[in-house]
Structure formats: structure tokens, C-alpha cells
Design a protein that fits this description.
The chain is of the alpha+beta class and 159 residues long. The chain has a domain of 80 residues: Electron Transport, Fmn-binding Protein, Chain A (Pnp Oxidase, Chain A, Roll). The protein has a seven-stranded antiparallel sheet with strand order 2-1-5-8-9-4-3. A two-stranded antiparallel ribbon has the order 6-7. A hairpin with a 4-residue loop joins strand 1 and strand 2. The radius of gyration is 15 Å and the shape is globular.
Length: 159
């Protein structure tokens, strides 16, 4: 389906970083597949690659954080998109703090929300995680970093 790949390859999805803490390990990854999927009640879905370290950690959590990256957050996109948590501690290379429910929050990214995991869906090489927001950061309206801006990054893991 080369035509389909070409079509969706030109879209400019918002780039996000998902972070998790399972009580033993911190993990985080760059996410390009995500969407609000309900207004009332508010719901959001993120898809995690099954080849990703964050997926292995996130399988056992009931909450995770979704960070909306701004153009100034390209270094975070590079860190969380090109370095694999299987080999390296990404959190040793960035500023972060414990957020609500112990979920790690990236200090350089004030646009975030913590979501309670309501359901998980096998969608192929990614798993969809349905979230209900339970806490929202104060940084809003700062813009967003899109896929076209980071498409040159080499992924830390194959999707």
C-alpha cells in the first residue's frame, strides 16, 4: 500500500511523549499515533509500539502521562524518539519530577495530562491505550511539534 504510506506520510500529526512508572522502572517514548476520541466524557487514545521499552513497562500501569511537545521541545523528541530504554536511562538525560500518581513529568514540557488507563486494544504492531484525564498541566496554548518537523529522526526501535 505504497499510496497509503505516501498519503499518511504527508500528514502532520502532533508529536507527544508518553511517560510511565511501574514502581520499579521509568520509561518514556515519542508517540505519533494519538487522538482525542470522546468529548463527554473526555477520552484520549495513545498507541504504543509493541517493540518499545515503554510498552513493556506501560503494560503494568494504571496511569500514564502524555506530554504535548512544542517546537522548542525538539531535543526531547530526539531523546525519547531515538534512544531506546532497553539500552539507556533517558530520564538521566533530562529534567523531570514525580507527578500525580508518581507518573514522571518532563520539566521542559509544561503541556501534559495524566490519564487513567481504561482499556487496551490490540491494533496490530501497536497497542491502543484508552485514557481518562485525571490531571492536567498548567502550560497550554504553547503550540505543538508536528511529525514533519521530526521525520528525519532515526527511531531507537523499529515500529
Amino acid at each position: 500500500m505504497a499510496d497509503f504510506d505516501d498519503l499518511v506520510g504527508r500528514l502532520d500529526y502532533p508529536m507527544l511523549v508518553v511517560t510511565v512508572n511501574d514502581g520499579r522502572r521509568l520509561a518514556g517514548c515519542l508517540v505519533g499515533f494519538a487522538s482525542q476520541c470522546s468529548i463527554d466524557p473526555p477520552r484520549y487514545m495513545v498507541w504504543l509500539s509493541k517493540n518499545n521499552h515503554t510498552y513493556t513497562v506501560a503494560r503494568g500501569v494504571d496511569r500514564l502521562a502524555v506530554h504535548v511537545l512544542t517546537p522548542e521541545n525538539r531535543p526531547l523528541a530526539a531523546l525519547f524518539g531515538t534512544v531506546t530504554g532497553f539500552d539507556e536511562d533517558k530520564f538521566a538525560r533530562c529534567a523531570w519530577r514525580d507527578g500525580p500518581y508518581g507518573v514522571p513529568l518532563l520539566l521542559d514540557c509544561p503541556q501534559w495530562f495524566v490519564g487513567e488507563v481504561l482499556a487496551r486494544y490490540d491494533t496490530g504492531d501497536h497497542e491502543g491505550v484508552l485514557l481518562a484525564p485525571v490531571a492536567v498541566g498548567e502550560g497550554t496554548g504553547l503550540g505543538q511539534l508536528g511529525f514533519q518537523t521530526v521525520r528525519d529522526l532515526d527511531a531507537g526501535n523499529e515500529a
